[in-house]
Every structure is written in C-alpha cells, then in structure tokens.
C-alpha cells in the first residue's frame, strides 16, 4: 500500500464508501480516516444487509425505499470498475485501526469539527459530502479541502454535472480541485473526460428514475474517485519519495475566475429523461 497524504472526512454514504473502497483497491491508503457520526444518524448508516450465511451482501430495504435502484443495477454499475457491494460494506474494516478515528458532531457546522481539524497542521482533507462546509473550515491555516466535481471545470459547475457534461461536451467530465467559498470555483488540480460505456441494452427496460439514481449513486462516484486516483498517480510519478502534504499542496494549479464558467441546475424531469435515454443508447466511438 502507498500512503496518500489525505485525511478522508467519512460521512457514511455510498459516495464515501466507493471513494474509500476504490482507493484501497488501487493500493492507496489514506493517512487518516475520520468517521463523522452525526446526531441524528445519517441515512447512510444502513446501506447494506447480510444474507443468512453472512456472505450475501445486498442493499438494505431501507436504502432501496429511498433509492429505487435494484441490486442487479448497482452490481452492474460497480462491476464496470471492479467493485462489489461487499467491497463497499467492508471498506472501513480494511483500513488499519490506527488510521481510523470517530468524531460525533451535529452536522458539518458543529464547532467540534472545526476544533478537531484545527489540531493538526498541514493537512489535505478529502470531502465526501454530508452537507456544506463552513467557511471557517475552508479557511483553516495550512489546510486544503479536496473535492471531486462531476463536471469539466470551469465549463460545467453546479448540479447534475454528469448529465450536463455529457450533453454539452459529449463525455462525462470530472475535476479535482481545492475548495473555496464559491460553487465549484476553487483552484483546479486535475481534469479528466471519460469515454462512454456501451451498455448493450442492459438498461433499456428500467424506469428512467432508477437509471438516474443508479448513475448518481454508483457510476458517478466511481468516475469521481478514478479521476482522483489518476491525479495521485501523476503526483507519485514525479517524485522518487513518498508523497507528502507539501508535495500535494505544491502541485501547479489552474486558477478559475467566476465569469469564465457557468453554473447549471438540476434538469427538469422531462429534459433529464431525454438526456438519460441518449446517454444509455449512444455507442462509444
């Protein structure tokens, strides 16, 4: 395992579990994982259920009530990246105990979180969602928050980035950047556009909303973290030593200006249906 100078702020969700499982699968061990326990608990804490023999791992009934994604679709989307539901279920237990800590907070604006993160200087945090980060967190001295946006910045900011990127640029695009107080306006570290997948009609008979949620819950997080992994690999390639926080913070960045980009909002249902139909039917070049 190669140690990566990232502290994962782990708010339990499908996105956070995919991030961590994929990093481990690629031999990358975060320096720290801080499991943020919220009160009341996040919905993500009941993602999976075990079969009678303890080996058959599936999405929990509670999760599927909120997210109409059948198990076979989740498994199909994860399989594109070599992941399984079991990988997601077990990801935290695969991290060395000394690397993991827990912090109970009300939400991301809880002063306890600011106080805890302030204790260690020179850190890069990987944001895995769970709310909006307070400006006080983003202003911590000698610390940076890394976010992976589903859009090719600065062209595609805002919501439904996977679909807008595909519609406007012909491919899903992703960007690793350092967060600031704006909406997807931080300094750009790395950008990547991905070729389309040939679904071979496997999604044709599913309800549009199930496909939409499946793409957002499984396909999109995998593309996000693959983008970060490619960026990390490029950093390792340029140093003969183990990567340090200073190495990560000194990577050349592309600064954004607000006027050069555009912010998009969630698509309307009818428009989204048409884009998703085109997305799953189009053949790769």
Task: Give a quick rundown of the structure.
Helix content is 36%, strand content 21%.
Brief descriptors of the model:
single chain, 285 residues, alpha/beta, Rossmann fold, seven-stranded mixed β-sheet, two-stranded antiparallel sheet, 10 helices, 11 strands, globular
Chain-wise SSE layout:
Layout: E1 2-10, H1 14-25, E2 28-38, E3 48-50, E4 57-59, H2 61-66, H3 71-79, H4 85-90, E5 100-105, H5 111-118, E6 123-127, H6 135-138, E7 143-149, E8 157-158, H7 161-169, E9 173-178, E10 188-193, H8 208-237, H9 245-249, E11 263-264, H10 269-281
Parallel strand pairs: 1-2, 1-6, 2-5, 6-7, 8-11
Antiparallel strand pairs: 3-4, 7-9, 9-10
Helix pairs in contact: 1-8, 3-8, 8-10
Shape: globular
Please mark out the parts with pLDDT under 50 across 5 or more consecutive residues, or reply none. Answer: none
Number of helices: 10
CATH architecture: 3-Layer(aba) Sandwich
Q: Approximately how much beta-strand content do the residues carry?
A: 15-25%
Keywords: Transferase
Protein name: Formyl transferase
GO molecular function: transferase activity
Domain Formyl transferase N-terminal: 130-195
């Amino acid at each position: 395992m190669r140690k990566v100078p990232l502290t994962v702020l782990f708010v339990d969700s499908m996105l956070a579990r995919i991030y961590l499982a994929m990093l481990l699968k690629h031999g990358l061990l975060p320096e720290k994982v801080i499991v943020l326990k919220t009160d009341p608990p996040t919905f993500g804490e009941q993602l999976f259920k075990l079969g009678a023999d303890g080996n058959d791992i599936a999405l929990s009934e509670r999760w599927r009530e909120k997210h109409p994604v059948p198990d076979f679709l989740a498994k199909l989307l994860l399989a594109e990246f070599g992941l399984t539901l079991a990988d997601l279920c077990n990801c935290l237990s695969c991290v060395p105990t000394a690397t993991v800590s827990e912090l109970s907070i009300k939400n991301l604006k809880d002063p306890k979180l600011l106080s805890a993160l302030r204790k260690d200087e020179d850190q890069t945090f990987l944001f895995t969602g769970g709310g909006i980060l307070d400006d006080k967190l983003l202003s911590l001295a000698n610390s940076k928050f890394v976010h992976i946006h589903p859009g090719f910045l600065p062209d595609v900011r805002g919501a439904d980035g996977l679909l807008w990127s595909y519609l406007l640029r012909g491919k899903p695009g992703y960007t690793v950047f350092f967060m600031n107080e704006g909406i997807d306006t931080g300094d750009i570290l790395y950008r990547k556009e991905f070729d389309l997948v040939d679904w071979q009609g496997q999604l044709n008979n599913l309800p549009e909303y199930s496909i939409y949620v499946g793409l957002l819950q499984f396909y999109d997080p995998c593309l996000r973290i693959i983008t970060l992994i490619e960026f990390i690999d490029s950093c390792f390639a340029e140093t003969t030593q183990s990567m340090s926080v200073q190495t990560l913070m000194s990577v050349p960045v592309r600064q954004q200006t607000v006027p050069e980009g555009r912010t998009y909002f969630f698509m309307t249902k009818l428009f989204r249906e048409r884009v998703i139909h085109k997305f799953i039917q189009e053949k790769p070049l």
